[in-house]
Amino acid sequence: MAEEKPIGPTLVWLRDDLRLSDNPALHHALERGGDVVVAFVHDEETPGIRPLGAASKWWLHQSLSRLAGDLESRGSRLILRRGAAAEVIASLIDESGADAVVWNRRYAKGARDADAALKKALTESGIEVHSFQANLLFEPWTIQTGQGTPFKVFTPFYRACLAQPEPRHPFPAPETIPSGAAAELPSDDLASWGFEPTRPDWAGGLRERWQPGEAGAHERLEAFIRDDLGDYGDRDFPADDTTSHLSPYLRFGEISPFQVWHRLRGRVPSSAQGQVGGFLREVVWREFNNVVLYSTPDLATQNYRPEFDEFDWNEPDPAVLEAWQQGRTGVPLVDAGMRELWKTGVMHNRVRMVVASFLIKNLLIDWRLGEQWFWDTLVDADDANNPANWQWVAGSGADAAPFFRVFNPELQASKFDKHGEYVRQWVPEYGTDAYPDPIVDLKETRRRALDRYDTMRRKAGLA
What we know:
By secondary structure, the chain is mainly α. The protein contains 18 helices and 5 strands. The chain has 3 domains: 1-134, Rossmann fold (3-Layer(aba) Sandwich); 136-169 and 214-295, Alpha Horseshoe (Serine Threonine Protein Phosphatase 5, Tetratricopeptide repeat), CATH 1.25.40.80; 306-454, Orthogonal Bundle (DNA Cyclobutane Dipyrimidine Photolyase, subunit A, domain 3), CATH 1.10.579. A 5-stranded parallel β-sheet has the order 3-2-1-4-5, with helices on both faces. Its cofactor is FAD. InterPro entries: Crypto/Photolyase_FAD-like_sf, Crypto/Photolyase_N_sf, Cryptochr/Photolyase_FAD-bd, Cryptochrome/DNA_photolyase_1, DNA_photolyase_1_CS_C, DNA_photolyase_N, Rossmann-like_a/b/a_fold. This is Deoxyribodipyrimidine photo-lyase.
């Protein structure tokens, strides 16, 4: 009788899933038996994968550092490598003797293509490969219209999601991770990747504001449920800020949507019960944006609605664009939002819509330039939400706000920051001689934007 071949090490390739609990790939590796090698590859070489922005790199540094500590506490270690992922993974297999590779799925086209090619090559070479659903409640190809096409409107997509079986329950975190094969593997020094800014060090506000990592994610979720969920219906008021602040943790997979979903479906304060549905609807909006990305791979560079290809954008004046980026437009709510972004790496959602509308419709600057700035400065920028939300404001996206909906920053401030608390927090010089006059006239530029929109519709044959 032939002797059974012993189970070789399993290589767990982490990407946007920097957690130990509810990590299906890691869970499978442990169930399989044998040693487990946990690796993260920083890949800026594979075509089609968008390099991270500066704020996201800062977050990633903190997250990887904490993950390494979490692994060490369980008898394992995190192997860090950089380079084209296919080449690095092949090297790690050779070095560790792994006979299986597992990962959690990604949904942007460049990442999907790279994963599919690697899976094919590894399988043909005799390596066992498995991928798993980890970071979306509903994978894009599983929720479709009655005609078998992707949803383009959110509300029917949301209803279709609610009609599905309840999302699976999360996997627990492992207590120990056998990792003999990883003990001697070389690993990069995280500091050598240069993700922490030094000259200048602009991340002081991010350090004050955030605690990246899996533990920080769950602390944030519990704080939201305890302190803010009951007031979630008033989330449009930026000074009160009752939003969850879970977006960067979800973006880097330090917490899974399955964990969020089932925690909200569990015990919450009685005063907050009425807000659970509204919050989970926003979780599903994230899912919808991923459906849009899945069916529209060039979402960050091309208009979802092709008629917007006819729109006549202004040639951006560098000084005007810089004034918007730095919060020096002379429009208080816009400036407050842009300064909050620079200091903390996030911006209140209501204000995000206002500053985006101002760039697109009052300055007539192409939404793609705003999307690129947010990509570099947001800690929660991801391939789906960032471009999809910019296109929503521009009117060029799926289920977008109509272009003629122009957010007037003064009216928005009077309605949602009536006492000026948010503006005063971020623009302390407002109301003094040090504060500049507005760089544009809001009424005049609104009329100009609507004229351009009408011209675009005529060119596209829609008028």
